[in-house]
Amino acid sequence: MTTLEHLKSNQPADRFYRGGNKIRSFRSVDSEAATGDHVPEDWVGSTTTLFGDARVGLSRLANGTTLRDAVEQHPQHWLGPKHVAAFGTDTRLLVKLLDAGERLPVHVHPTDDFALNHVGTQHGKAEAWYILEGGTVHLGFTRAIEAEELGRWVDAQNVTAILAAMHTVEVHAGDSIYVPPGMPHAIGAGIFLIEVQQPEDLSILLEWQDYAIDGPADGHLGIGFRAALDATDTRAWTSAQISALVVRGGVSDHTLADSSAEYFRASRVDVSAPTTFAAGFSVLVVLSGTGMVTASAPGAQAIPLSAGDTLLLAHALGEFTVDGNLAVLRCQPPATR
């Protein structure tokens, strides 16, 4: 049974916003990277499907099995006994490469409670962005917004008013931003990032004009905007509170804001000498450079690494060592006790 796999590109087609070129460039060693200009997301280590679809979005292993099926069949192998005891076969993790070929519309992801009570899903969607190429992002409201005012903005598609009421943050390569569930947000044009998130595809659109999506029909998770907009965090966020969500140039255990740890973990590690990592289910993204990864098990083969690689590591792999001259981002589910 496999314990470590290179994952090929997994890009749902015909998304409603543009992008894809930066994923192809980053994944230059992957001949299967999708073509076209509406493939802006690469779903890595995914046991999640597009909202309303039974299969699209699932990662496949080299033998053709979906990761979701593999985990269901052998949860201890993939996730480890502590994870299974705490969360069952839920991986608690989805990683994406995201290329914003244009500014994404302002949108919101629900909390766990809202998602369970209104949509019937196991999670809401907290997320964090590790920035590969920077730009401008929009996060949270600068003042408290009444529900009626928000509803009027959305009905009229008054995007100017929505953006004017939000914080604007400049981000650079190496920064990270944690986006709590409920917070309205938008990723600016030109940004390329790795997204670490809860494993759901749940978005409530506050904006849709000029995008290839029918917002009134598809922007509210099928529950209607009257209910869906209640998922929005309409509180005023201070500049200091927004700044606490941003980590500038973080490495090791300080890659993401501490407040994200209940949902997921990510750690950027710069390797210039053999570096050993603890066992645990994870997705490894090679940010730059070249090197090798070797498991601690006797007879384990060294596997080459290069920039743009994405790897899936099972708990059963045990400790593993990365050597060479490279930078990696290790993404993991929340820690268990």
From TrEMBL:
Alphabetically, the GO molecular function entries are: kinase activity; mannose-6-phosphate isomerase activity; metal ion binding
Cofactor binding note from Swiss-Prot or TrEMBL: Binds 1 zinc ion per subunit.
Where do the annotations place Zn(2+) binding?
Answer: 109, 127, 185
- Could you name the domain of life of the organism this protein comes from? Bacteria
Q: Which SUPFAM superfamilies match?
A: RmlC-like cupins (SSF51182)
The keyword Zinc appears for this protein: yes
What region holds the Mannose-6-phosphate isomerase cupin domain? Answer: 261-330
Transcription as a keyword of this entry, yes or no, is no
GO-annotated biological processes: carbohydrate metabolic process
Q: Which keywords, in A-to-Z order, does the entry hold?
A: Kinase, Metal-binding, Transferase, Zinc
Tell me the cofactors it needs: Zn(2+)
Do you know which PANTHER family this protein is assigned to? Answer: FRUCTOKINASE, TRANSCRIPTIONAL REPRESSOR MPRA
Q: What's the protein called, per UniProt?
A: Phosphohexomutase
What organism does the record attribute this protein to? Cryobacterium lyxosi
